[in-house]
Amino acid sequence: MVNPATILVTGAMVGSLYVLIAIGFSLIYGVRGVINLAHGAFIMLGAFAYLVAGGQVSGVAAFVIAILFVGLFAVGLYLGLVRYIEHNVVITFLATVVVALIIQQLLTLEYSLAPRSLEPIVSGGIAFAGTRVRYYQLIAFALSWVALGLLFLFVRRTTLGRNILATSMTEKGAKLAGTNVLYVNVATWFVAGAFAGFAGVFIGTLQSTSPTMWINPLGLAFIIVTIGGVGSIKGSIIAAYLIGFLETMTVTFVGPAWRGMFALLLLVVIILAKPEGLFGREFIE
Amino acid sequence: MSKSVTSVTEESAYGYGIPLFDTRVNLYQGGVLAVLLVSLVTVPVWAPPWAYLFALANIWAIFAASWDIISGHTNYISFGHSFISGAAAYTTALLTFNVNPDMAIYITFPLSVIVAVVAALVFALPSLRLSGPYFSLLTFVSVLVATKAVFIFSTYTNGEMGISTVSVLTFDTTMLFYYTLVPAVIITGALLYISRSNVGKVLKAIGQNEAAVEAAGLDTTRFKLWGFVYSAIPMGIGGALLAHFYGNVEPIAFLIVDRSIEIIAIAAVGGMGTILGPAGAAYLFLFLRDEVFKAFLGPNARWVAIWSVVLVLLVLSPQGVLKRLWTFLGNLGGDSS
What we know:
The complex is a heterodimer. Chain A is mainly alpha-helical. Chain A has a single domain (4-273), classed as ABC transporter involved in vitamin B12 uptake, BtuC (Orthogonal Bundle). Chain A has helices at 4-32, 39-54, 59-85, 89-111, 135-157, 159-169, 171-176, 181-206, 215-228, 233-253, 261-273; strands spanning 125-128, 131-134. In chain A, a hairpin with a 2-residue loop joins strand 1 and strand 2. In chain A, helix 1 packs antiparallel against helix 8 and helix 5 packs across helix 6 (159-169). In chain B, helix 1 packs across helix 10 (198-215), helix 5 (81-99) packs across helix 11 and helix 9 (173-196) packs across helix 10.
């Protein structure tokens, strides 16, 4: 017998992580139409930064270090590479995916392909609605909403955040109004990287940390952003929870090997029925 | 009506850089091409230890040129081409593993190519409604799903270990080289012909401005679909060849998305939309990866090196290195344009 509460609780936990995976990808895609295929590698770097820092400092400090490290890495990637090629969609595609592969190979050299598990920030758990929930799952869930709230405040209440929003609507208009597009890009990449680092720590803990772990989150980010609609944070959140519940049900009723299959099916249906996604603007090249 | 249609598409196609062979080949270009071709054909004579590597490169040249006819021309970047070749390889493998280990190659081979075409159409059909980036994302995800399916149905596919019941073409590397060289040359020639034909020009025009091609009254969806078929047939041939090359079909060498990315990287370094560029770059890529970097850096670090080289070349020469060299040779003569 499957307890419906189990699916609800587990689905919500999975969904809160998927939001974190997708939000950074959605931001970069939404603001400038840049598809960053190194996004999965950002998530992986978050997990590895936590692994390395966790050996030196406490779990909470390692978590903060991982977030800052990936945020800065993302800014570095933008300033050092993407800035020069972003006008060329095809080359940006290729270059970012090649960056992901380089990171994968470097990590393989250093840590081998064997998966490792990360030490959770807090161990232990409680029984909740008949399901055992681990504390760090609850922390992930709560922090995910806190981070989303902060992002919302940032975009709506601060000048830099409003500039990001304006640039995502019309770059030309934002420039005319005096927005410094370079600042906007740097801020966007930092926020996207920080969210990816955050997601990486928890994915590395819940699943496994290995140099090939970037591919699945990248695929998920595509699926979620496309279903939710490009440029819509609300759409990404709803799509992430939708996929979270769908996957939990898939794992419960069909089997863990089928994870991802039905999400893809949903993606195809949405693309055919509503190509701009649930809440998206029409994608303009 | 039809007169204005052709003029629009021809103009867009010719306005696009200097594709190989769209222009007159000058003495320098012809000379270099002839020298390279002769050296390739005689590899087993002047460098017998390299015959195996170049045999593998022949198959990758097929892949890169096949990818180029659809993605390089239309700018619809497919991350799913390892799915097409993998479908062919797995058809060959599944038939010998699950049906009859002695099934003749003249039965399995055509069947594999047919399955590859069907697989390509399965992901080409939803693409008819998608703009470029969505198309790429969907093809990327389809490779992930196909890889996953191999593990889900591991009773039939033998999961990560793969199927080793496929007959190896030959253990004589010289013969292996020529068995793969002949299809590579024929396919590259055929794709070059398609690229230069009206279909190829329309595909290139789609890559430049799809709305304009549509406005000119051409059904771009039909052209893209045909482009996919032209791409899938040689991909299928290459995939089945690769199965018989290794004798063992498993996900890592045949299916995972890294293989698709390699195909794209090769095509981009060679020069997208030129057919010959991607085919030539396949030899360069494999030679660097499996010979030069392997000798200096070892089997693992060579990957870092090859991807770094690709990244630098992509940024410095987005048009493609070989295409640039070709243009350079073309300008040596003075008046070729």
